[in-house]
Amino acid sequence: MNILVLTAHPDLSTSTANRKWFEALSDVDGIITRDLTAVGGPEMRFNPSVEQALLEQVDRVVLQFPFYWYSSPPVLKAWLDQVLLFGFAYGPDGKNLRGKELVLAISTGGPAESFQPGAFNSFTMSEFLTPFQQTALMTGMSYLPPFVLHSAMSRDQTNLNASVPALISHVTSTRLNYNAKLPDAESRQ
Questions:
Q1: pTM, rounded to two decimals
Q2: Tens place of pLDDT per residue across the chain (189 aa)
Q3: What residue ranges are annotated as transmembrane (predicted)?
Q4: How many angstroms separate the CA atoms of 172 and 3, rounded?
Q5: For residue 31, what are the contacts with CB-CB under 8 A and spacing of at least 6?
Q6: Of all residues in the chain, what percent are helix, strand and coil, respectively (each to 5)?
Q7: How far is CA 26 from the centre of its chain?
Q8: FRET pair for 38, CA 20 to 30 Å: which of 8, 18, 20, 147?
Q9: CA-CA distance, 112 to 188, in Å (whole number)?
Q10: What is the CATH number of the domain that holds 137?
């Protein structure tokens, strides 16, 4: 299986979790990693032909990012807007992503229990991630269970270090299934 990991962090050099994940995933055979901030530059401009060619070569796409204001950083939105175009990703002739898989790898600052009805963030991670699921549906991709590391800003090195092999296992698993509940997939702290 060929995997493309698109990392969307405003400044990967200052990141704790996302930088560690990016570096580890970059060393795995069969995985292509791209730092979207480095690729798109300050203007967040992407060459659709280059990005689309990469998408066509892979079976699975992983969107890796810190959870910012209940969504992704702007560089990922810019990439989605400029690359997943009518006629390529959707529309009558937009069939290039059909049958591919989409996985999210997300770090949050808050604890898992804060992402529940009645808690600090009011909604579950699944509810917050619905737009990404709809993007997968619109493009004919299979939306697979996300990998979520909660409390990533706590600087808990034991938890952070444990998240690396868990993330690699998650994004490379051939057994991911949206209907199958992964142990602790949304409750890593």
A1: 0.91
A2: 999 999 999 999 999 899 999 999 999 999 999 999 999 999 999 999 999 999 999 999 999 999 989 999 999 999 999 999 999 999 999 999 999 999 999 999 888 888 888 889 787 899 999 999 999 999 999 999 999 998 887 777 888 889 999 999 999 998 877 554 433 444 433
A3: none
A4: 8
A5: 3, 4, 5, 25, 171, 172
A6: 40, 20, 45
A7: 15
A8: 147
A9: 7
A10: 3.40.50.360
Q: What residues make up the domain containing 44? A: 3-172
* 184 located within any domain: no
Torsion of CA 89, 11, 13, 7, to 10 degrees: -10
22: in domain: yes
* Tokens at 93, concatenated: 């002739």
Give bridge partners of residue 60 from the DSSP assignment.
3, 101
Closest by Cα among 152, 72, 79 to 112? 152
